[in-house]
Amino acid sequence: MASFKYDSTPTQYVEFKGTNFAFRKFGKESGVPLLLLIHFRGSMDNWDPKLLDALAMDRTVIAFDNKGVASTNGLTQETYREMADGAAEFIQALGYTKIDVLGFSIGGHITQELLFNHGDLIRKAILASTMPQGGKGLTNSKPEVIALAIKPVIELTDFLTLFFEQSTASQKAGRAYIERRKVRTLDVEPATSVQTMQAQGKARKAWAEMDESQGLANLRKVTQPVLVSNGSNDVMIPTAQSFSLYQNLPNAQLILYPDSGHGFLFQYPELVAEHIRIFLDQSFEN
Q1: Domains with residue ranges and CATH for the chain
Q2: Does position 210 have pLDDT exceeding 90, yes or no?
């Protein structure tokens, strides 16, 4: 825990019932850590180190690969409920009884399943660029967006289309994010597998096909404080879905960032980290 720099934090492993979970834990020691749940086809290397370094100034931050993803053995599960169960097993393996969670994109769907089925573990949650059960996300996107998202091999430059707006400012921020992604040389992750892409794709399709009214009813039962956030124009999971989350969660706040898309938290890493810090440190009355 001496390291406050994500790029210099080594990968560790913890075993639970045959799964050897890969994870990176760093930052200021805190009783309640912040667990990170990454996007579609992402691994620990997909996080922006600038964002994580800023978050780690105030608390313990933990990134990990769920079952079958990148450096963790096994097969990737085919439902978000199973992925949430895997995340709960990982938390149990580390010995924590209470955590905060930042779920980005499909990580936000997994976070919702954690809230629905493992709520006793969750103190607060951040849902970034995500949607409720039954919401319409990538399946309603432009064909060129879908084609990039499911390419056999994702290139870093593809994120300029998938995660950022086409404005000069947003593209500049996107290129800076790509450069930050290239810095790490320690314990570099393998690319996620075709099996991971297919399994996560099945989970995403099933999530979108769920009964929307039941999904919104599930959200209304959540008692934990939740910060919902997104860019102003998310081309992968429409920004309107974030507003739907905000409307139906009883104890939610909403932040939308200007001139940004799905990857807004990599466009404004320090600002997003500051807003997350305020949210996690704030006292709430239920």
Answers
A1: 6-281 (3.40.50.1820)
A2: yes
Q: Which residues contact 9 (CB under 8 A, 6 or more apart)?
A: 3, 24, 25, 26, 186
Note the pLDDT of residue 176.
97
Region 14-43 average pLDDT = 97
pLDDT of residue 145: 78
DSSP code per residue over the chain? -----GGGPPPEEEEETTEEEEEEEEES--SS-EEEE--TT--GGGS-HHHHHHHHTTSEEEEE--TTSTTS-S---SSHHHHHHHHHHHHHHHT-S-EEEEEETHHHHHHHHHHHHSGGGEEEEEEES---TT---GGGS-HHHHHHHT-SS--GGGHHHHTS-SSHHHHHHHHHHHHHHT---SSPPPPPPHHHHHHHHHHHHHHHTS-HHHHHHHHHT--S-EEEEEESS-SSS-HHHHHHHHHHSTTEEEEEETT--TTHHHHSHHHHHHHHHHHHHS----
| CB contact set of 28 (below 8 Å; sequence gap of 6+) | 1, 4, 56, 57, 58, 59, 60
CA-nearest of 24, 16, 234 to 129 is 234
What are the pLDDT digits (tens) for 126-150?
A: 999 999 999 876 556 677 778 888 8
Q: What CA–CA distances, in Å, run from 17 to 86, 90, 185?
A: 11, 10, 30
Q: How confident is the model at residue 238 (pLDDT cuts 50, 70, 90)?
A: very high
Tokens of 94: 């580390």
Asked whether the whole model's pTM tops 0.70, one would answer yes
